[in-house]
């Protein structure tokens, strides 16, 4: 069995994915996606000088890289050496779905709400559930945001396709 | 996404741009004329008379419908590069708006604009700094919210974020709050303006002061009166807008100094450095057009050059606003919440209401523009 963990800062989700992988003797791959949609998100901004925009986008990129290093370091501390860690860049949910399509995973584990990059203001759970080609296991994060309009209020949800 | 350059970039722009042009063409040629004659609830032209819809608001609505319904929250790859030209169109349009003024006319209303804008910008910043502390918001986020609510939404938030070391994800929430408020006020303000029988001068002064986002000021003024000429809502509103835009580097400097006060970092911050880095250069284009207009180099009022320029401007703004609508993702706006929402809403509502009161009390219906 192959499990994919979509990484965000939640250590509960990391622990849950590791527990599941151990229990089911499955191979675990963790995927960190660097959000590359900041440029698109700031499309509302048409007044800033190019210096301001460039500064912001560079700052957001640096922040993404720091977040990648921190999250992967946290995951490495917890997982066994045979866990695979991957990184990619793009729209977060698209990259997760691309990875699911590329390898034959049977389960995707991710936090809900999913706090990676701009997914904080998006419905990652909805986008993943709509297109995932495997079962999805959501782990309720500590900092749940009631204003996020997503799919469930249950602590966990598993969806079989 | 891979960044395209040169000819490949030009080719990549075509599909999205063609789609925006086609949309605006349909709206202006078929939808708007139909709305002026359509009978709804027994009233001819109900869409225009009651809802005050015109091609400007329709352009924004069309963009929003594309993004949120047709494309399920994401501009598709084939249209992405074309829709990115939105910024270019609106900036070019604002530069061309400079032709509506002469240096003398700017001097006449510029003083009122500077006084109103500066009081409201710095008043709002101080309010957000106070209320943000009451709400126990992080100092970085207070700085970003103060800039966003005080000056002009996204642009100021983006300019301030690196300086106050705010988390980009928090900034996204702040932007969602400010944009949500701005979109609501964009559709509500024309109703209020018509209800209170505000003149174009009063309306321009009000929304130029009270609405948080510059793109939305432009759209709201054009929604109130789509005519682009001296003495119309957009001509007045844009003066307020330009004053506000010019204040961005000063606001960034003020907030940065507040954030780093009593720390070594403060010694490295200079106003000149921030102006050099953050000044929106296109404003120079705006004033260059005003200079040309003052020297009579664009022809007299009513000349074919002026007419052509205004027709081009109306298309440029229309295209830009289809694009701006397509950048509004309702789901992203719904993510606004917590303390930034409380602070943003409080600041936005107070500014919006107070600006209306000040305009009604102190700004005359007419001006010798």
List keywords for this structure.
heterodimer, A: 161 residues, alpha/beta, Rossmann fold, six-stranded mixed sheet, 5 helices, 6 strands, 40% helix, B: 369 residues, mainly alpha, 2 domains, two-stranded antiparallel sheet, 74% helix
Write the layout of secondary structure elements.
The complex is a heterodimer of chains A (161) and B (369).
Chain A lengths: L1 E5 L4 H13 L3 E9 L2 H4 L8 H29 L5 E7 L1 H11 L4 E6 L11 H8 L3 E6 L15 E4 L2
Parallel strand pairs in A: 1-2, 1-4, 2-3, 4-5
Antiparallel strand pairs in A: 5-6
Chain B lengths: L5 H32 L1 E2 L2 E2 L1 H4 L5 H16 L6 H7 L2 H12 L5 H32 L4 H12 L2 H8 L7 H28 L4 H11 L3 H11 L8 H14 L1 H13 L10 H8 L3 H13 L9 H23 L3 H5 L3 H25 L7
Helix pairs in contact in B: 1-3, 1-4, 1-16, 3-11, 3-16, 5-15, 5-16, 6-7, 6-10, 6-12, 6-18, 7-8, 7-9, 7-13, 7-18, 8-9, 8-13, 9-11, 9-18, 10-11, 10-12, 10-18, 11-12, 13-14
Structure overview:
Helices cover 40% and strands 23% of the residues of chain A. By secondary structure, chain A is an alpha/beta fold. Chain A has a single domain (2-159), classed as HUPs (Rossmann fold). In chain A, strand 1, helix 1 and strand 2 form a beta-alpha-beta unit. Helices cover 74% and strands 1% of the residues of chain B. Chain B has helices spanning 6-37, 46-49, 55-70, 77-83, 86-97, 103-134, 139-150, 153-160, 168-195, 200-210, 214-224, 233-246, 248-260, 271-278, 282-294, 304-326, 330-334, 338-362, and strands spanning 39-40, 43-44. A two-stranded antiparallel sheet of chain B has the order 1-2. In chain B, strand 1 (39-40) and strand 2 (43-44) form a beta hairpin. The radius of gyration of chain B is 21 Å and the shape is globular. The A-B interface holds A 36, 38, 40-53, 55-56, 58-60, 63-64, 90-91, 115, 117-118, 120-123, 127, 145-149 and B 1, 73-75, 80, 83-84, 86-87, 90-91, 152-155, 158-159, 161-162, 167-169, 172-173, 175-176, 179, 213-215, 245, 248, 277-282, 320, 323-324, 327-329, 331-332, 334-338, 341.
């Amino acid at each position: 069995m192959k499990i994919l963990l979509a990484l965000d800062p939640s250590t509960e989700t990391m622990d849950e994915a590791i527990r599941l992988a151990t229990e089911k003797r499955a191979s675990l791959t963790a995927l960190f996606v660097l959000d590359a949609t900041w440029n698109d998100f700031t499309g509302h901004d048409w007044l800033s000088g190019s210096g301001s925009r460039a500064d912001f986008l560079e700052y957001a990129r640096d922040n993404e890289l720091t977040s990648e290093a921190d999250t992967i370091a946290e995951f490495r501390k917890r997982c066994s050496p045979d866990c695979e860690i991957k990184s990619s860049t793009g729209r977060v949910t698209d990259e997760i779905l691309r990875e699911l399509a590329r390898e034959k995973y049977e389960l995707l584990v991710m936090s809900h709400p999913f706090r990676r990059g701009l997914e904080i203001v998006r419905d990652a759970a909805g986008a993943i559930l709509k297109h995932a080609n495997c079962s999805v296991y959501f782990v309720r994060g500590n900092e749940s945001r009631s204003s996020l309009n997503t799919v469930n209020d249950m602590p966990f949800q598993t969806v079989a396709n | 996404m891979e960044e395209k350059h040169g000819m490949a970039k030009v080719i990549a722009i075509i599909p999205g741009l063609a789609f925006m042009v086609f949309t605006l063409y349909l709206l202006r040629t078929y939808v708007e004329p139909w709305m002026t004659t359509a009978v709804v609830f027994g009233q001819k032209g109900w869409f225009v008379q009651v809802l005050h819809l015109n091609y400007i608001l329709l352009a924004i609505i069309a963009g929003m419908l594309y993004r949120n319904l047709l494309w399920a929250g994401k501009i598709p790859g084939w249209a992405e590069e074309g829709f990115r030209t939105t910024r270019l169109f609106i900036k070019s349009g604002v530069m061309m708006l400079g032709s509506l003024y002469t240096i003398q006319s700017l001097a006449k209303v510029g003083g009122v604009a500077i006084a109103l804008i500066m009081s409201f910008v710095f008043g709002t910043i101080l309010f957000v700094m106070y209320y943000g502390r009451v709400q126990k918001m992080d100092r970085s986020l207070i700085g970003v919210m103060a800039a966003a609510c005080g000056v002009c939404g996204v642009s100021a938030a983006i300019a301030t974020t690196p300086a106050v070391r705010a988390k980009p994800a928090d900034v996204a929430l702040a932007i969602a709050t400010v944009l949500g408020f701005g979109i609501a006020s964009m559709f509500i303000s024309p109703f209020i303006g018509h209800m209170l029988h505000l003149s174009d001068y009063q309306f321009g002064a009000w929304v130029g002061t009270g609405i948080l986002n510059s793109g939305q000021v432009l759209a709201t003024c054009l929604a109130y009166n789509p005519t682009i000429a001296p003495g119309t809502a957009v001509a007045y509103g844009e003066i307020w807008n330009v004053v506000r835009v010019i204040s961005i580097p000063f606001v960034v400097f003020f907030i940065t100094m507040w954030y780093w006060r009593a720390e070594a970092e403060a010694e490295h911050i200079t106003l000149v450095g921030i102006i050099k880095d953050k000044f929106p250069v296109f404003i120079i284009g705006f004033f260059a057009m005003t200079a040309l207009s003052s020297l009579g180099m664009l022809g007299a009022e009513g000349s074919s050059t002026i007419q052509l320029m205004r027709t081009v401007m109306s298309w440029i703004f229309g295209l830009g606003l289809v694009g701006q609508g397509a950048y509004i993702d309702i789901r992203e706006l719904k993510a606004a919440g917590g303390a930034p929402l409380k602070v943003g809403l409080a600041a936005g509502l107070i500014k919006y209401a107070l600006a209306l009161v000040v305009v009604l009390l102190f700004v005359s219906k007419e001006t010798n523009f």
